Amino acid sequence: MRTVTLKDGSKLVIRRAVAADAEQMAAFKTAIGRESDFLSYGEAEIEITPETEKRGILATEILENTVMLLALLEEEIVGFVTFHSAARPRKKHGGELGIAVRQPYWGLGIGNLLMAALISWAKDAKTVRKINLVTRADNAAAIRLYEKYGFVREGLLSRDVRINGKFYDGLLMGLPIDAED
């Protein structure tokens, strides 16, 4: 657990998710699905329940190469970052990052703090050697954040998502994690 003072003076706690967070996590994911079209899902496009969230959180407790970190202000989840990887030996060194911050809290540096915490976790994890992500190619703010932390552009997925009849390309990015093997 880490506590940080934000730009506005409030205290942000970053910690691993636990099963008791499932109900609040379901509400958080439902809210961000309404707030941004930059996610891989929109409002009511995926099943989000406390039970599905609890299963996801419990999986992060079992696997050494999977994590969910939460950002909390006054015990309310305002952001999260996840890293999911495969269990197969040939693929378990890499996986995909997901990150989101509630819209009312954009611009406070929460995304930066979550990204730094995830990269720190990945460096400490003995198996993680590559973090991958896909973001919309027109999501300039997210791309700046990723590039700030050393992510490089690796490819483009044309027509990756379709929102309200319009197609958007997906930008593949990756970050190698240095470690002593």
Characterise this structure.
The protein is an alpha+beta fold. Helices cover 28% and strands 36% of the residues. It has an 8-stranded mixed sheet, with helices on both faces. Helix 1 (22-35) crosses helix 2 (50-62). The radius of gyration is 16 Å and the shape is globular. It starts with a strand and ends in a 5-residue tail after the last strand. 28% of the residues are buried.
Short description:
The chain has 181 residues and is of the alpha+beta class. Helix content is 28%, strand content 36%.
- Uncertain regions spanning at least 5 consecutive residues: none
Alpha-carbon distance between the two ends? 27 Å
Helix content: 25-40%
What is the strand arrangement across the widest sheet?
1-2-3-4-5-6-8-7
Cα gyration radius (Å):
16 Å
Question: What about the largest sheet?
Answer: 8 strands, mixed
Order of helices and strands: EEHHEEEHEHEE
**Structure classification:** alpha+beta
Overall body shape: globular
Mean pLDDT across residues: 93
Content of β-strand: 35-45%
Tally of alpha and pi helices = 4
User: Could you tell me the number of beta strands?
Assistant: 8
Topology summary:
Layout: E1 2-5, E2 11-16, H1 22-35, H2 50-62, E3 67-73, E4 76-85, E5 94-101, H3 110-124, E6 130-136, H4 140-148, E7 152-163, E8 166-176
